[in-house]
Specification:
- The protein is an all-alpha fold and 245 residues long.
- It has a single domain, classed as Up-down Bundle (Rhomboid-like fold), CATH 1.20.1540.
- The chain is 58% helix and 2% strand.
- It has 11 helices and 2 strands.
- It has a two-stranded antiparallel sheet.
- The longest helix has 24 residues.
- It comes from Caenorhabditis japonica.
- Belongs to the derlin family.
């Protein structure tokens, strides 16, 4: 598979997010951009009017010899779960998927500034993973050491693994909270009560027109969650967060 086919095989929103999350950290790694202008901080955004930081913090991650493998794991998770959501649940409706990312990003920015989390890539990827796991909650996933369990438990397993192995957990918890907020207001509540609490703005639909198809019905029914269970394998490796992958 050549690079062009690989990239064109991704839906449009995932493709731009994926490529940006690779190129921008590499530019920082090789000194072509300064990390000092990329991270998120309340004082710099609010008091210094550096309003670009919530955007750069989404696609930048400090890729160093110590963090590089973890960054690659996050990029893999981004590719895997963002592509799955946009291709399956939001198939033909990339504008709706972009709105999901904007919704999650907005709340991630607020929580991360309050908790002094400087980079948004990890909580954002975790929020996407959480939504996928809820839509596919009965799908069986395979984890380390042959562990197998329904996908609904995966975000919590990742949270526990990182809290134990790396002393972290804040990024994962923010992603879980934000992902759950979106899943409830945009998918679960409309399915249960037939009332849409949020809707995609019209300008996003004009930006990315809908195509035919889609697993998630226009009536709010979460059709993706009715797939038959299937296995998921995780890449091995020690010391990586988001499940130590």
């Amino acid at each position: 598979m050549d690079l062009e086919n690989f990239l064109l095989g991704m839906p449009v929103v995932t493709r731009y997010w994926f490529v940006s999350s690779i190129i921008v950290p590499l530019l920082g790694r090789f000194g072509l951009i300064s990390p000092q202008w990329m991270f998120l901080q309340w004082e710099l955004v609010v008091n210094k009017y550096q309003f670009w930081r919530p955007f750069t913090a989404l696609i930048y991650y400090p890729a160093t010899p110590q963090t590089g493998f973890h960054w690659l794991v996050m990029v893999y998770f981004l590719y895997n779960y963002s592509k799955a959501l946009e291709s399956e649940v939001y198939r033909g409706r990339s504008a709706d998927y972009l709105f999901m990312l904007i919704f999650n990003w907005f709340f991630c920015v607020g929580l991360c500034m309050a908790l002094e989390i400087y980079f948004l890539l990890e909580p954002m990827v975790m929020s996407v993973l959480y939504v996928w796991c809820q839509v596919n909650k009965d799908t069986i996933v395979s984890f380390w050491f042959g562990m197998r369990f329904p996908a609904r438990y995966l975000p919590w397993v990742l949270l526990i693994f990182n809290a134990v192995l790396r002393g972290g957990g804040a990024n994962e918890l923010v992603g879980i909270l934000v992902g759950h907020a979106y899943f409830f207001v945009a998918l679960k509540y409309p399915e249960d009560y037939g009332i849409d609490l949020v809707s995609t703005p019209e300008f996003l639909r004009k930006l990315i027109p809908d195509e035919d198809g889609g697993i998630h019905g226009q009536d709010g029914t979460i059709r993706g969650g009715r797939q038959q269970p299937r296995g998921h394998q995780w890449p091995g490796g020690a010391g990586a967060r988001l499940g130590g992958n």
